[in-house]
Design a protein that fits this description.
single chain, about 600 residues, alpha/beta, Glucose Oxidase, domain 1, Enzyme I, Chain A, domain 2, TIM Barrel, 8-stranded mixed beta sheet, 8-stranded parallel beta barrel
């Protein structure tokens, strides 16, 4: 990568974010400010109701036309799997219950369509934002894209899509459509203030092989159009006006990355086995059935987390038992003989409450297993649907947001009832289906031994466990830097959970982001983790690391880490260890 030294005359500034798509690029920044529609509630006379509804219908038709063009382009460039994102958005536009509700409100409330669209779809956005799972937060942001597209079309605003020359896009956030549309230009990379690794924009960037860093918080304030910047999509770094030393270092890192990726070719079919022959289960986290093929191609031998609440996206009504059973059966059949773990709904109370519902702190509120146990008919319908999909005996059930042993026991009673109801119908199912718990609340971690005596497996959800343990909302920029995978309290808790599970003779997995962090792999092997469940694209890298180490050495590494007292010490030690064993792995070089 060549650069004119004159461009680095200004002082270098480094911004740290979340690595979303690997790769390194350098070039001129383009600051993309989204044209957010202006939304104002306006009363309309009764005589204009029909014309207002026609205006809405015309806008929806135009929005669908735009999305179908994007869908077609995405299918050609990325394949049908990645393009599924846009099919889901089109489904929202075609949801007759949702659109019918919007039209009915226009008639009854005599208000303009922009406001009603914003308010009605906003109900679903609030439901998603109330979830503890960051995945649902990302889906909420993507629902904004549908809302804004409809409103922009109602207001007859044009869609921006053209850039001149090569650019690194810098924006507050990027919707999936933005990512695909911009890829028609000469895009070198993406950098955003907001977003997480689970966002569809991040997933698309990985598919497009465009480096991306998200969660930078202040990029749009620090970077201007025309600034020369370097983006490290592997380490999560943006360098503004990089020095020649920084440029040389990134070029060397890019070469190491290229060499390391070459070693991953063909690894998908090999076992995740250490040099001294200890094997591990590598699974994938997915949300749609058509992701299965890609996950398996990357070396997945099962699905460690299927988020069933993805069925709720874009729906104005709750899915029926039959609808759920069909979806779950498609996934189970597509994976056979590999296992799939269906996590029961992790949703907030506002999704199922008939009255307006609000919680001051939904993160600590009525959600997950708490909602399921208080709404037994909903819970039983989902359990029956999962059981109906289990006839080939490769289905597992996982309970979210468990904080007490009594919740596990009550859930098992409902599972027993669901089985009895299916028996009464003469409906086949796996009578010995396995049930597990997601350990994401500190109280559940402390009760790991007792909970393990009641279930067949545990899966550690590090994203929320770390936030709860450290009292850090990583979506809050004021404290996000305090979110630490390698905080010694977190690591000792993970060890306690693994030991608690093993003491009761069950396996323990991990389905949070930490499981996909290459810096953590050796440590997690040494701590005794049995299963890694990660986004499909990082499976080859995690497998390569496992195949490059000895279990007995990993045990020594873990023992050493557990004696260290600070996060920077642990991170520095692990970086040294991993680079010594796998010299060409391109790790993030900053300390936390």
């Amino acid at each position: 990568m060549e650069h004119d030294p004159g461009k680095t005359s200004q002082q270098e500034l480094i911004l740290s974010g979340i690595p979303a798509a690997p790769g390194i690029a350098m070039g001129l920044a383009y600051l993309y400010s989204k044209q957010m529609p202006h939304i104002q509630m306006k009363p309309i006379p009764e005589s204009e109701v029909e014309s207002e509804i026609l205006r809405l219908q015309s806008a929806i038709a135009r929005a669908e036309k735009e999305l179908r063009k994007i869908l077609s382009f995405a299918e050609q460039k990325l394949g049908p799997q990645s393009a599924k994102i846009f099919e889901a958005q089109i489904m929202i536009l075609n949801d007759q219950i949702l659109i019918g509700t919007i039209e009915k409100r226009i008639k009854e409330e005599l208000r303009n369509s922009e406001f009603i669209v914003f308010d009605e779809i906003g109900k679903y956005r609030r439901m998603m934002m109330s979830a503890t799972d960051e995945y649902m937060h990302e889906r909420a942001h993507e629902l904004d894209d549908v809302t804004n597209r409809i409103i922009r079309c109602v207001q007859d605003q044009k869609l921006f899509s053209r850039l001149e020359g090569e650019s690194i896009i810098v924006s507050e956030s990027l919707a999936p459509a933005d990512t695909v549309i911009f890829s028609r230009n000469q895009i070198l990379g993406y950098a955003t203030d907001l977003g997480g690794i689970t966002s569809h924009a991040a997933l698309l960037s990985r598919s497009l092989k465009i480096p991306a860093v998200v969660g930078l918080r202040t990029a749009t304030k620090q970077i201007h159009t025309g600034d020369f910047i370097a983006i490290d999509g592997y380490g999560g770094i943006i360098a503004i006006n990089p020095t020649e030393e920084t440029i040389d270092g990134l070029n060397r890192k890019a070469q190491r990355l290229k060499e390391f990726e070459a070693k991953l070719v063909g690894i998908a079919g090999l076992p995740a086995e250490t040099i001294d022959h200890k094997r591990y289960e590598l699974s994938a986290n997915i949300e749609f059935a058509d992701e299965i093929e890609f996950a398996i191609s990357q070396g997945s031998r099962g699905i460690g987390l299927y988020r069933t609440e993805s069925q709720l996206i874009g729906r104005a009504s709750f899915p029926t038992e039959d609808e759920q059973a069909q979806d779950y059966s498609t996934v189970a059949e597509g994976l056979f003989p590999h296992p799939v773990i269906f996590r029961t709904f992790d949703i907030g109370g506002d999704k199922i409450s008939p009255e307006p519902y609000h919680e001051d702190n939904p993160f600590l509120g009525w959600r997950g297993i708490r909602v399921s146990l208080e709404r037994p008919e909903m819970f039983l319908a989902q359990l029956r649907a999962i059981l109906r999909a289990s006839t080939r005996k490769n289905v597992r059930i996982m309970l979210p947001m468990v904080s007490r042993l009594t919740e596990v026991r009550r859930a098992k009673e409902y599972l027993k009832q669901a089985k009895e109801e299916l028996k009464a119908r003469d409906t086949p199912f796996d009578s010995k289906i396995k049930i597990g718990v997601m350990i994401e609340v500190p109280s559940a971690a402390l009760l790991a031994n007792e909970i393990s005596a009641e279930v067949d497996f545990l899966s550690i959800g590090t994203n929320d466990l770390i936030q709860y343990m450290l009292a850090v909302d990583r979506g809050n920029s004021a404290v996000a830097s305090l979110y630490q995978d390698f905080n010694p309290a977190v690591l000792r808790t993970i060890k306690m959970v693994i030991d608690g599970g093993h003491k009761q003779g069950i396996w323990v997995g991990m389905c949070g982001e930490m499981a996909g962090n290459p810096l953590a792999t050796v440590l997690l092997v040494g701590l005794g983790l049995d299963e890694f469940s990660v986004i499909p694209s990082v499976l080859p890298e995690i497998k390569q690391i496992i195949r490059s180490i000895k279990y007995k050495d990993a045990r020594k590494v873990a023992d050493k880490v557990l004696t260290l007292s600070t996060e920077p010490e642990i991170r520095e030690y692990l970086t040294t260890v991993v680079k010594a064993r796998i010299p060409d792995i391109p790790l993030e070089e900053q300390s936390g």
